[in-house]
Design brief:
Layout: H1 12-19, H2 26-36, H3 49-58, E1 64-71, E2 78-84, E3 89-97, E4 100-105, E5 108-110, H4 119-122, E6 125-128, H5 131-145, E7 149-154, H6 164-174, E8 187-191, H7 195-204, E9 209-213, H8 219-225, H9 234-248, E10 252-258, H10 266-276, E11 281-287, H11 301-313, E12 318-320, H12 334-346
Parallel strand pairs: 4-7, 7-8, 8-9, 9-10, 10-11, 11-12
Antiparallel strand pairs: 1-2, 2-3, 3-4, 5-6
Helix pairs in contact: 1-2, 5-6, 7-9, 10-11
């Protein structure tokens, strides 16, 4: 990983402060305009040569390139295997909805949360992505596929709140004029439940949607599935979630992976409803994807329907996630594992 600061993570004001007093503040605006066009330092033709050289010496231009691309024949979902400058690999998925194109992006190469049913975590954590690399995921996909992304989901590889500073820098750049220009209400950020970071994020009062990967109604089940629960148990997490919803006025989405015979009984549904009663929230049920090397299997449609009925009878707004890109392994971690295996075999 390049030790130089990521210039694409900086706001105009931050860059101007670093360039002064040698260069006037308006030069920073020129630099950012070029960066938003995808230019490298040598292409910034209206800048003095001395400034271009200085930028190249001081800063890195973090970005991604397309290594693999798969397009679903079933629904047009696009899965990207992106290569980072240091050889690390990440994934991103473009999905088309009635309201436009949504992109699920990665925030880390790998993940250290170790959730039992997740393909990404099985290969461990490599490093955090910079804000510039996250922006590049969107810009690269837009340019490659010829579409405009109108909403972003931070739900790809990695735990966003485990990369808090870079993710916040990314969020602050999204709506900037001339960039990808995506407002906070069109952003969803997923977390497995890092309570201290949820409390920090709450103070920023972003109008994004916080998606909390809950996946269990109690500690006995969640301890089996998610190691993070041993540090921040269900009661502590839900207390933080209630505070977050009250402080921001934003409804929390609880993600709940439906796993056959583990967390999908009517009793689990009733217990979950009791936990969430009175909170500004909804539950999104997710039929899990089968991950090689794990014993977990998705609940049946009948069981998901019964679970939904119990939640709704208790006043909990519930949805079932639409499955997209099944024919191209669009869920997180699957493509990266395959690309890593292909790399090892070719060596």
């Amino acid at each position: 990983m390049n030790a130089k600061p990521d210039i694409r993570a900086m706001t105009v004001e931050q860059l101007a402060a670093q360039l002064q007093p040698e260069w006037p503040a308006w030069r920073a605006r020129q630099v950012v305009d070029w960066l938003q066009k995808g230019a490298d330092f040598g292409q910034m033709s209206n800048l003095p040569a001395a400034l271009r050289q200085q930028l190249a010496e001081r800063y890195s231009l973090a970005g991604v390139t397309v290594e693999k691309k798969y397009v679903s024949a079933a629904d047009g979902t696009v899965k990207y295997g992106f290569l980072l400058a240091d050889g690390e690999r990440i994934e991103s998925v473009l999905m088309q909805y009635r309201h436009g194109w949504s992109q699920c992006i990665s925030t880390q190469a790998g993940c250290r949360m170790g959730c039992a049913f997740c393909a990404t975590g099985r290969d461990g954590w490599r490093r955090n992505l910079t804000a510039g690399e996250m922006l590049s995921e969107i810009e690269t996909a837009q340019a490659d596929h010829g579409v405009r992304v109108s909403s972003v989901v931070l739900m790809g590889m990695g735990e966003p709140l485990d990369n808090y500073d870079h993710v916040v820098a990314f969020l602050d750049r999204l709506a900037e004029p001339g960039g990808v220009q995506i407002g906070m209400r069109h952003i969803s950020l997923s977390t497995c439940g890092l309570v201290d970071r949820i409390e920090q994020l709450m103070q920023r009062r972003y109008q994004l949607t916080l998606s909390v990967s809950l996946h269990a109604p109690n500690n006995a089940i969640r301890d089996r599935l998610m190691p993070v629960n041993r540090k921040w148990p269900v009661e502590t997490l839900l207390t933080a979630c209630r505070a977050y919803a009250e402080e921001t006025g934003r409804r929390i989405s609880f993600e709940y992976a439906m796993i056959d015979g583990v967390n999908d009984t009517d009793a689990c549904a009733a217990e979950l409803a009791a936990r969430l009663r009175g909170m500004l929230c909804h539950v999104n049920l997710i039929p899990i994807n089968t991950v090689e090397g794990t014993p977990w299997r998705a609940s049946s449609r009948q069981r998901i329907a019964a679970f939904t009925k119990v939640l709704e009878s208790k006043g909990i707004v519930t949805t079932v996630r639409r499955t997209l890109g099944a024919d191209i392994e669009a869920s997180c971690g699957q493509l990266r594992r395959r690309l890593q295996a292909e790399k090892r075999e070719s060596q």
